[in-house]
Structure formats: structure tokens, C-alpha cells
Amino acid sequence: MMSEALTSLALGRRPEGRTLVTASWVVGHKDGSHRLLRNGEVVFENGEILFVGHRFPGEVARRIDFGNALISPGLIDLDALSDLDTTILGIDNHPGWAKGRVWPRSYVEAGPYEMYSQEELAFQKRFAFGQLLLNGITTAAPIASLFYREWGETVAEFDAAADAAGELGLRVYLSPAYRAGGMVLEEPGRMVPVFDEERGFKGLSDAIAYIGRQNGRHGDLVRGMLAPDRVETSTLALLQRTDAAARDLDCKFRLHMAQGAMEVDTVRALHGSTAPVWLAKAGLLSDRLIAPHATNATEEDLVLYAANGVSIVHCPLVSARGGSTLNSFSSCRKRGINIAMGTDTTPADMLMNLLVGLITCRINDRASDQVRSVDLYDAATLGGARALGRSDIGHLSPGARADIAVFDLDDTVMAPSIDPITTLVTGGSGKVTRAVFVDGRVSMLSRKVAGIDMDKARVQAQAQYDRLIAKYPERSWANPPVSEIFPPSYPIEVDANG
User: Is residue 324 over pLDDT 80?
Assistant: First the structure.
């Protein structure tokens, strides 16, 4: 049973007047770090937090008691899944070059094309944003695959994405991803980079114009971030222009690097070093740079990250599924490297990522005492805010934006409960997210998301995804049927008389 005060909250709207929320636990903030408040209170109005503590002395328009729950700063996802994830197709289907993960030469010569319509691209952003909110994520920097694209992302889909963020109530950092090249499969197992630098420059120009037009929209929920796709698909000139544009726009830029053997081998063949060393020599490592995933970073790479203020985005679930890990979370922290978190894959469950991150760090360290649950939680809140250069999100304190996630602690799978953060990280999942406020607005309540019917949207998403999979033979080596590209786990039997 929901209280009368809770049912009075309207999805998609800020409640009028001061709102006080309370629960058995509140994550407060003091002297630069989080604090746990037993039976604490948070008061906010007009998108801003006014009070965090006990026994608020002022008048409030409503008081909402979430009971046995944790009131937390909203989670920050800097590699946020924003499409219908194709990486899951490769979980049990190998090798990647034979499964449509790299364009074969025949597909390139036939002319790559968009495998989704603009309407479908707009829908998948909206659906993905809804999934993020369902998992307690209040700030996101979207990431999507370019494997099924004609080249880069389009301005039209990101105009739609900005509007979707405003309508659903999600804080986002946006601009279309661009690239100067791509990997082409010349024969089984042999991939080579092919470049079209002018196309990369055009994509950067479009992204700069997009940020100039969209930055600050929807009550400042939308801000810009430049997003060159990957380091191995970028030229030095493109990255130099990106860095200069980021300085001019006063924004961050995100670049995936040190994340896989193919990238490491390709960059070494092209430039004679690892990607971080190559960028360092060009003066392109700085605190403007946000760099997923660092799973293949060398000791030298990590020293350069630490010396230049580069933030890592740790996405442990997608990395571990592919057989790699950050080596290690604790050692990067000891070096002074700022670590933020990302989801990158389905499910867009940040809590699942925190648990996988905890486990993989302890496996790499061969010890259990080098990292704690709270360290991963800090990365998903304070680390993300630090990477973005924001002091007003990632924590709950007076003057901060009212970005709040409420996680139930009375789910039977989490019994018995101990420390609330440890309980949430080791036993929780995004499914225990009960409410989400972004800038004081009710973006998700009782598993309902403002601006979208997620149950209906899921049906549409599956149909759209099935149509995409049906096109995979066109962009797979030798054009095998879907049944060979993605065989079922077990033989499928059907009712012959059905």
C-alpha cells in the first residue's frame, strides 16, 4: 500500500512546495564523502536540495516515508546503454568476425546503410532512457554500437534523444558519435583499418553545432559531450580537433581506448605504441578526457592516466562477459586515477555492475581486503560527478541538484540485511529501485516511467531487434543464414501438429 502523500506525486512533474522524503537510511554527504544517516530526511524544492539530516525545522508541503529503504544520490552512468544491445549476440557466439561484429569487404563495397529508420533510432533511445531510470540512474552519457550504422550517429536521432531526455526526465550528456575510419574484414580473421578522415571531420562539425544548439535545454538536463567512437577509428588530426573543440565548448570528450586486443594491435601497427602513449605524445591526455574501459591498459598507460587527470569509465559486466577485467580497480584508485562507472550493455543495471566490479577486482588482486562495496558505490556517484566536473550531482547535500534514487531494502532476496550499501551492492539489483527524482521531478515511481509505457515499449523493442537480426547475413562473412550465425543453445523442437 502506498501512502496518500506518495500517490499524490505525479509522474513527470516536480511536486509543488517543499517535499520531505525519509527512509530507514539516507546517504548524506559531509567533508567530501558520503555519510549514512539512520532514519534521515531529505528536503528539496524546485530541483534543489535544501536539507539533509534529522528533524527538519521548517514547514513542508508533503512528507513521504519510503520505509525500509535507502535514499541515495542518483547513479551516474558515463557509458550508458542507449540502443538495443548487440553485444549480447556475441556472448555465446564466436568468433566475433564471423558474427557480424566487423564489416566484411563485400558489405563495404555494396555500400553500408542504416539498418534502422530514424523513427526506430529515436525509439530505441527513448526505451533505453526508460531502462536507465528503472535502474536508479539519473545522469547518463549514452553509448551505442556503430556496427549496424551507415557510418556515424545522426543529428536527427540526437535531437530526438534530447527531447526524450526532457520528456522522461533524465540528465544526459549528448552529441552524435563520429569516426574517421572503421575495421574491415578482408578474409576470415584478418581485419584492417580503413580511413575516411573528411567524414570524421564532418561528424565532429555536426557534433559541435549540435552541442551549441542543445546545451542547457530542458532546464539544463541536456549538456554536451563530444564522442569520437574509438581510438582505432580516429586519426590524430581528428582527435586534436576534438580536444580543441572540447576546450572551446568547455565540455568533456569520451574516447574508448585500452579496451581490447584488436585495438591494441591496430594502434601499435599504426602508431608504434599503445593508444594512451600515442595520445600523451600529442598532448591529448587531460582531465577533459573520459576513457572507457582501460581493461588492456599497461602500467605505462595507467601512469599516464594518473599524471594527466584522465577518468576511467569502468564497465565490469560487459568486460567480464568478453573475458577481460580492469586490472585492477583498487590499483587504479591507489594511483589516484578517478574511476566512474558505466553499464554499456543490457541489462542497464548499475547495481549488477557494482557487484561484478567488486568480484573481478578481488579476483585480480587475489585478495578480499583491497576493495569494498562502498568503493564501487563511490565510483557510481562521486566518481561520475568528478569525471564530468560537476560538484552539484553525485551526492545529497544542501545546494546540490535533487537527483535522488530510492532503493528498497526489504526485498526478500536481500534478507538478512547488514550495512545498507554492502547489502545493496552484493544482494541488490536495479529491480529494487522504487523511485527516481531528477532535478526534483518524479521520473520513475513504483516501476512506472514518465513519458513512456515500458511494457508496451518492450514489445516494440523486441520486434525492432528481431528485424535487425534478420539483416545480419548481409553484413557477415560469406552471408550465412541467421540460424548459423546465432544458433540456439539447444536444438529447438516444435509441435508438428500445432
Answer: yes
